[in-house]
Specification:
mainly alpha; 4 strands; globular
Length: 244
């Protein structure tokens, strides 16, 4: 039985080198491209030929649009409207990576910390730049809650700074860990189905039933983690805009 960790191995498909650095096109890059292309095609198809009575694709597109628009409106306010395309793209990309990874033989690129941390770091830096662009040096007031006694500054400011700097780490590790652990457990139970079912049909039914339940749970986790990743990004933007 193959190792449960083998599914996370990044393998080059097209070997490329640039200035001595390996920039090969890998299975991770392939499934990022597939996820982005498929979601783009679905969303473009849902918007094409829109009618008063929506079909399935149009309904899907409208539901996703309203869901993310409501999330941005509730967590950022009216000033977050211009950032809606970014959050919509972010949600779709993470959701696509999570869901496509559930296809047998596919690669879950959101199960790699380098991918999730790159996303989280880009979000963190962008939001920080927005905060400084809007407030200048007044942005530093975010690290000292209003109304707090000045004497508590030596304690509160380091805590707030560490908490702020840890945001990309917590954001990336949460997504990476959930996707990795879920796929490892599914791989283990799939191995039980094969090993037990090959010799004893009845014992193999038990891990198969568990595997079906885990698969259903993973679909829920895939959607939930995309939601959490996006809504936390909205909250971080709200802090940068309103300094709350």
């Amino acid at each position: 039985m193959a190792s449960p960790l083998e599914q996370f191995q990044i393998k080059p498909i097209v070997h490329l080198s640039l200035a001595g650095y390996d920039v090969s096109f890998t299975n991770s890059a392939l499934w990022m491209t597939i996820a982005a292309a498929t979601l783009s095609l679905v969303l473009l198809s849902s918007a094409r030929g829109a009618s008063l009575v929506p079909g399935r694709l149009q309904s899907l597109g409208e539901i996703m649009y309203e869901f993310i628009a409501g999330m941005v409106r509730e967590n950022v306010g009216d000033e977050g409207k211009k950032y809606f395309p970014f959050f919509f793209t972010l949600f779709c990309f993470v959701l696509g990576g999570n869901l496509f990874g559930l296809i047998p033989g596919a690669f879950t690129f959101t199960s790699h910390i380098v991918v999730t941390f790159s996303l989280a770091l880009a979000i963190f830096l962008t939001i920080t730049v927005i905060g400084f662009a809007r407030h200048g040096t007044h942005f530093f007031s975010l690290f000292f809650p209003s109304g707090a006694p000045l004497a508590t500054a030596p304690i509160l400011i380091p805590i707030e700074v560490i908490s702020y700097m840890a945001r990309p780490i917590s954001l990336s590790v949460r997504l990476f860990a959930n996707m990795t652990v879920g796929h490892i457990i599914m791989k283990i139970f799939a191995g039980f189905v094969i090993s037990l079912g090959a010799y004893f049909l009845v014992p193999g039914v038990v891990p198969f039933a568990v595997l079906v339940g885990l698969s259903a749970l993973e679909f829920f986790v895939a959607a939930l983690q995309a939601y959490i990743f996006t809504i936390l990004s909205c909250i971080y933007l709200n802090d940068a805009i309103h300094l709350h």
